[in-house]
Amino acid sequence: MTGSRRDFLQLAPAAGAAALTSTAPARAAAPYLAGALDMTVKRIERTWINVPFREVPARNMIRELPHWTYFEICKVTLACGVTGFGETMVYYTWGTVSDAAVARATGRNAAELLWDDSLGCGLQMALFDAVAKANGVPVYRLLGSKRRDRPFVGWWVIDMPAEDWVLECKEAVAQGYTDVKAKARPWFDLEHQCQVLTKSLPAHFKIDFDFNAMLLDASRAARYLERIDDFEQVAAFESPIPQSDVAGNKYLRTQTRVPIAMHYGSPPVMTALREEVCDVFVIGGGATRVMEQGTVAAAADKPFWLQLVGTGITATFALHFGAVLSHARWPSVNCHQLYTHQMIKPALKVDNGTAPVPEAPGLGVELDEDAVARFRIEPLKQRPYPAPNLLLAIRWPSGATSYYAHAQQYWDDFLAGRLPLFPKGVYLERIPDNGSREWRELQAKAAQGGVHSAGRPL
Fold first, then answer.
1. CB under 8 Å to 453, separation ≥6 — which residues?
2. pLDDT in tens, 135-193
3. Fold category of 2-142 in CATH
């Protein structure tokens, strides 16, 4: 299916030219169509921007993901004059656009490049936008038949105190969302967080918890999740233990009423399906990868959520995939709610947990050029992590404290078996600089590695 669609787009310019020499009666539109379908990539422009977090995400993302504010806007201009745009989250795990990719794409027919995931997400997105505009169709028409007018969209939050989760979820409800994906971490008491959060939410609002394998093994996970799945609004557990543990995940699925979600591909998909290790897949990546994985999931009758992360630009791109993939039945994770600006006009609007897929050509939205100019920066030479001058404290129920300067330190300590596993009463907090010598000295020590104290000096 993908091949035939690509072949059609490659042949379109030749077909348009043939129409000019046909013996059939001439039509005034033919020369226009021939020019409009000249989809040679003439120019590729890239611009870095730094889009601020909203207040609540800002005070929590700074510990672990302060660099998620950096994006590269990619614009592709075709020989026919059509321009498409896309974005790359610069310091994310997939999709950076390289100078080599730009050189490889320049001078080529954009339609030939659409399915090349190696170009990077910003460039690939811009190519889809440009080609769809040149053909006068929305992006989803290049992907397949529309299955739904309003794909499912979810909210996203990092691990944070229960009170901040409440603030974020109340905002989500006010904006029309019905689902949140939250990071479950062993330095917060998840049971306490659920008690606080669920009391503040309407009954229809659902919560998906992503453990990133931090429950470690099936035996301890089964006992812990038994307490969490008592909360009726909990809708999914994502990767509670390492996904490579096939036997453990298969057992764990029998021990909870809550669906288990796992990233597609680990374990290999045929193993995952044969052994029935999960109920839901998480699918993301480039266009080819998303469509191929979504097709396999559909054949196996396995629902999934799309995970394409960025501002409103990426969230809109994800809507087009959600429109055509039959089993994209769970709310997509795009993280665009983290930011003060969506970077598109009009902004994405959600109602009843869904958003309309744009029907205008291309992505169907305009790039917010004023916001691009406002947030434009020079490219950075290295990832800005960790954020400077942080002092973080994990408060253990025993009365002890572990001090750190950034999240990677306590992640490493936990995964190395040096920290307890989800004890009741644990919480993490940021210690503000009070100007004292004690704060400066403790922060300097923490920057070199975890500082563990039997008490709470700060």
1. 400, 401, 402, 403
2. 999 999 999 999 999 999 999 999 999 999 999 999 999 999 999 999 999 999 999 99
3. Enolase-like; domain 1 (3.30.390)
Q: Residue count of the chain, please give it.
A: 458
Q: How many CA atoms lie within 13 A of 316 on its CB side?
A: 31
Angle at the Cα of 191 from the Cα atoms of 304 and 329, rounded to 5 degrees: 15
CA-based diameter of the chain, in Å?
Answer: 91
DSSP-derived pairing of the beta strands 304-306 and 401-404: unpaired
Bond prior to 346 in cis (omega within 30° of 0):
yes
Residue intervals in the chain for CATH 3.30.390.10: 2-142
Specify the pTM. Answer: 0.90
From CA 199, how far away is CA 428, in angstroms rounded?
A: 22
Question: What is the token pair recorded at 451?
Answer: 């500082």
| Whether 277 contacts 261, CB under 8 Å | no
- In the chain, which residues fall in CATH 3.20.20.120? 155-360
CA-based nearest residue to 88, from 76, 80, 100, 96: 96
Helix, coil or strand: residue 217? coil
Topology given in CATH for the domain delimited by 155-360: TIM Barrel (3.20.20)
CB 211 within 8 A of CB 238: yes
